[in-house]
Amino acid sequence: MVPLFCVVIAGLCGLVVSAPAPEETEFYTTKYDHVDVEMILNNRRLVNYYTACMLSQGPCPPEGLELKSKCV
């Protein structure tokens, strides 16, 4: 469970990384700034949900789809 937990943490941290916008230099997207990462990591059900999403073993919320697109 610990290695999988580390994958989820690393993935959620990757939510803030994005490619620069065409006309402006931007280091990360603010689209998902409202996501409470600590709340997700402190909730076993949500960790399992996002883990299944990352492993393509379950449905993905919009945040999960964004994360997967940045990790692949």
UniProtKB/TrEMBL annotation:
Keywords for this protein: Signal
Source organism superkingdom: Eukaryota
Pfam annotation, one family: OS-D
InterPro entries (alphabetical): A10/PebIII (IPR005055), OS_D_A10/PebIII_sf (IPR036682)
Signal sequence extent: 1-18
Keyword Ubl conjugation: no
PANTHER family: CHEMOSENSORY PROTEIN 13, CHEMOSENSORY PROTEIN-RELATED
Protein name as annotated: Uncharacterized protein
Organism whose genome encodes this protein: Diabrotica balteata
